[in-house]
């Protein structure tokens, strides 16, 4: 899906996965998480992480960049996790 070097620590990137788009975030050097980048509120694609948060440009929902958990609505739930893992120098689906 993506090269690990393309996912900076503390940030993330949106890539094409086997079943659609995946937001890959990298909370630490040796940890990656996959999230569905579609906001559960109105189906808008969220922005890449910045300053520890992921923001939906549609209506301003805010999610934790490390976990995808909802921090502020109007979304009532967090981003849906997608299992990913580090394999060599790449991030792949788990």
Fold and architecture overview:
The mean pLDDT is 95. Strand 9 (84-87) and strand 10 form a beta hairpin. The protein has strands spanning 2-3, 12-17, 20-28, 31-35, 53-55, 62-64, 70-72, 81-82, 84-87, 90-93. It has a 4-stranded antiparallel β-sheet with strand order 2-3-4-8, with no helix packed on it. It has no helices and 10 strands. It is mainly beta and 94 residues long. The chain starts with a strand and ends with a strand.
SSE layout and pairing:
Blueprint lengths: L1 E2 L8 E6 L2 E9 L2 E5 L17 E3 L6 E3 L5 E3 L8 E2 L1 E4 L2 E4 L1
Antiparallel strand pairs: 1-10, 2-3, 3-4, 4-8, 5-6, 6-7, 9-10
> Which H/E pattern describes the elements?
EEEEEEEEEE
Question: Helicity level, as a percent range?
Answer: under 10%
Structure summary, number of beta strands: 10
Q: How many distinct helices?
A: 0
Summing up helix and strand content along with how strands pair, one would put the structural category as mainly beta
Strand proportion = 35-45%
Biggest sheet details: 4 strands, antiparallel
Q: Span from first to last CA?
A: 11 Å
């Amino acid at each position: 899906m993506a090269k690990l070097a393309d996912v900076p620590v503390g940030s993330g990137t949106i890539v094409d996965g086997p079943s659609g788009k995946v937001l890959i975030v990298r909370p630490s050097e040796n940890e990656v998480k996959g999230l569905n980048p579609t906001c559960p509120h109105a189906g808008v694609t969220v922005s890449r992480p910045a300053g520890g948060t992921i923001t939906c440009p549609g209506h301003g929902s805010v999610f934790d960049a490390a976990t995808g958990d909802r921090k502020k609505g109007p979304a009532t739930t967090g981003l849906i996790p997608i299992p990913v893992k580090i394999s060599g120098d790449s991030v792949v689906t788990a």
